[in-house]
Design brief:
The protein contains 6 helices and no strands. The chain is mainly α and 127 residues long. Helix 1 runs antiparallel to helix 6, helix 4 packs across helix 5 and helix 5 crosses helix 6.
Length: 127
Amino acid sequence: MELLLTFMVLHALLLILLSMPKYNKAIKEFPKRDKKLEKTFKLSGFTLLFLSFLIMLFVNGLGVGIAWFCALVTLIGTLLSFLNFFNAAKTAQIVTFIPQKLFGRITAKSGLLYLGLYPSIFLLFSF
């Protein structure tokens, strides 16, 4: 369960990072000046982050859930800042690899894919 939540937070933070024009202009495959895509990535990222927070509260309880969420966001945020510093294109491929294989390019559906994927995997493994 914690590994799933770790990947969920990783993808959420990367989606939020890629929604910012300062960071997405370094990636060749990313469409330039696509406001709908940036808005979808930002919305998907914050929704995934909120969902992971609620799941951690539900699974671990109030005190441990909040502490675990803060630790996870700090750890993954630090990891992403180091990875993005060394190679931004490879870091972005963590999020864009699956949608590019499914849709052929990065579209607004790319961010929404993770909103459907993670809750379904969570429901699959929780029962």
